[in-house]
Amino acid sequence: AEYVVIACGVWSPRIAEMAGANIPLTPAVHQMADVGPIDILQQSNAEVAYPIIRDMDTFCYERQTAGSMEVGSYAHRPIFMHPNDIPSNEESALSPTELPLTQDDFDPQMEQAIELMEMLGDAEIKYAINGLLSLTPDAMPVLGETPEVKNLWSAAAVWIKEGPGIAQLVAEWMTYGYPHLCDPHSSDISRFYPHEKTEHHIYARCAEHFNKTYGIVHPREQWASQRNMRRSPFYAREEALGATFFDARGWERPQWFASNAKLMDKFKDACQPREHEWDARWWSPISNAEHLQMRESVGMVDLTAFNEFDFTGPGALGFLQYMCVNNVDVKVGGSVYTPLLTPGGGFRGDLTIMRLGEQHFRVITGAFDGGRDKYWFTRHMPTDGSVTFTDMSSSLCTIGVWGPNAEKTMAKATQNIDAEGKLVAYDVSQANFPYGSVREVLIDGVPCWMFRISYVGENGWEVYTKMEHGLRLWDSIAEAGKEFGIIPVGMGVYAVTGRIEKGYRLMGAELESEYNPVEAGLARPKVKSADFIGKAEYLKARDEKPAAIMCTLEVLDHTSKSGIKRFPTGGNEPILTKDGERIVDAKGRVSRVTTAGAAPSLGKYLLLAYLTPEHAVEGNELRVMYMNELFPVRVARVGSQPLFDPTDARMKS
Ligand SMILES: Cc1cc2nc3c(=O)[nH]c(=O)nc-3n(C[C@H](O)[C@H](O)[C@H](O)COP(=O)(O)OP(=O)(O)OC[C@H]3O[C@@H](n4cnc5c(N)ncnc54)[C@H](O)[C@@H]3O)c2cc1C
After folding, report:
1. 133: CA distance to ligand 1 center in Å?
2. Do residues 556 and 646 share a domain?
3. CA 9 – ligand 1 centroid, Å
């Protein structure tokens, strides 16, 4: 067959392995008992007359099936079985995925079910099993073409309830090059990094999340298992500075630093604790202090989790032109920020490319999209040898240096060899080193690429060097910045407060395949002449009135009915009209919060959301629904112009 789809449930890893591919899932036990007959259910004379009950306190469900009740549990200990150990039909008393119940694991759950529904106590257990279902390391399905084997597809780790939708999604993906139904990025098989496909990782993460199947999971929830898988060369310094680390696909990234706690006195008003435990969970007011100090002096940010992909060779330019919306044919030492589109014209990626040589380009992309972007680029690469791909991600580390004192810091730290071969201070002024350019420099003798760019709205650079030079680079920049008030700054600023003040969009949040660059406010005035994936649809979108527009909203009043101030976490909260009506655009897409966060420099709390043209009017008052309450919000900005420093003067002059 030309195409093969592995839709073999818990057997999928075995089938994939036969072809040299990896479908990272483990068969896991889910216990279920069929209890009955029960009079009241029999009298209903229906397969299902009563709604299913999910008991979120005991992690159990009770579901009518004709005259009896199925009791299922996600409360028992995680029990895994290796795919190779699933018994054959002949070896199985029932079927290979209906294993004998381990009674001790189920007894406490049955007691709790009886406590909830007395009638269960009087009935018999007709049938009880250790059923097998598929668990994956992040509890999401595994869909798409396997990165290892062309035309071998996975449709695994799928529940019955989502089966028909996923069948459509995978069929569309195979037919059109990307699904139309919705963006599959969270289920995409190419999302996994190599360490996430090991049995070690699969078992550890599945053991951790199994009992959260019915758990209440925070949008910022952090994994406890499989930590310290990937650490930057700066880790020891960050640990000494009291970093609270968040996991970014195995990377330990500082979210904020205890060493900056003292700044909270200085910025008292902006650093008030959040009253509600849920809003304060996985968050610290230190982030706001770091933000304000960075905007006043200079901060250094560990960006080592970035992925760097080098494309070289005579075909590199033509290939990247075909992959990217914006013109990649910039001067050597220049860069381009560009979306990648699906054939349907929606977002497939969002990244930056530096041109390091006539035939040498470096793609920079984030930790959460590295695997998917690598697959997308390499899958489309010409096979005639004209382009060479090198994954530099494990070779390079990165420090962001940003703030009004970044230039002074880097002027002190940066040197270069002049035309006469002498080591001289390097001119890092905007005149010699403008925004968007990349230069090879020496910092304390360490060869680096300095890239003048910012995701936080401040003058400064991303500084790249080889991993082994990283610690020296960190120490050199910290030392140079000492007299200018340099502080370490965490992801709480980089990814949330700094970003949201500038309205910068994030792949996977604002940018998904359901939306296009016109709607996201990322369409440039001109379209390049070269062809690229999604061009026809992009041109069409430019001629049409957008059905939705990305907007920045400010929360006008945080006070809940209980009097406690609440702070939406950015977990898809609905944006509603003043009357509490849903906002649905002409394409059926619902307005919801894609990112939420404090904007300490503006004294506001901001939300990003797509709104219909009717509602996308600056000053328009709407509501955000959070914890079943409505809070007033106002449209502060329509489109991509930032609320903070709208002309980008801080970054570019
Ligand atoms: C006790 C229990 C209760 C559940 N309750 C629910 C529920 O309420 N709602 C819900 O949505 N989900 C529920 N699930 C999960 C659900 O059963 C699975 O997610 C679903 O069956 C997976 O469907 P699938 O088609 O991917 O795999 P399967 O249903 O396992 O089908 C895979 C098929 O592939 C076949 N196969 C294997 N190897 C090969 C091969 N080499 N060649 C050809 N065919 C092969 C197998 O024989 C099998 O028929 C429950 C699971 C259990 C164990």
Report:
1. 7
2. yes
3. 5
The pLDDT-based confidence of 214 (bands split at 50, 70, 90) is very high
Q: Residue 45: which CATH number?
A: 3.30.9.10
Residues 295, 406 share a domain: yes
| 590: DSSP letter | B
Q: Closest Cα to atom 42, ligand 1: which residue?
A: 8
- Residue 534 falls inside a structural domain: no
What is d(CA 267, CA 601) in angstroms, rounded to the nearest whole number?
11
Mean predicted lDDT score pLDDT of the chain: 97
- Residues within 6 Å of ligand 1 by CB: 7-11, 15, 30, 32, 72, 131-133, 158-161
- Alpha-carbon distance values, 551 to 7, 102, 163, 616, 635 (Å): 40, 53, 34, 7, 7
Containing structural domain, residue 13: 4-24+138-212
User: Which ipTM value was assigned to this complex?
Assistant: 0.99
Pair 504, 413 in one domain: yes
| pLDDT tens track for 258-302 | 999 999 999 999 999 999 999 999 999 999 999 999 999 999 999
Q: Both 498 and 646 in a single domain?
A: no
The residues, ordered by sequence, that sit 6+ positions from 92 with a Cβ below 8 Å of its Cβ are: 98, 99
The minimum-distance atom of ligand 1 relative to the CA of 155 is 26
Q: Which amino acid is at 226?
A: Q
- d(CA 533, ligand 1 centre) in Å: 36
Where does the pLDDT of residue 571 fall: very low under 50, low under 70, confident under 90, or very high at 90 and above?
confident
Q: Residues 18, 166: one domain?
A: yes
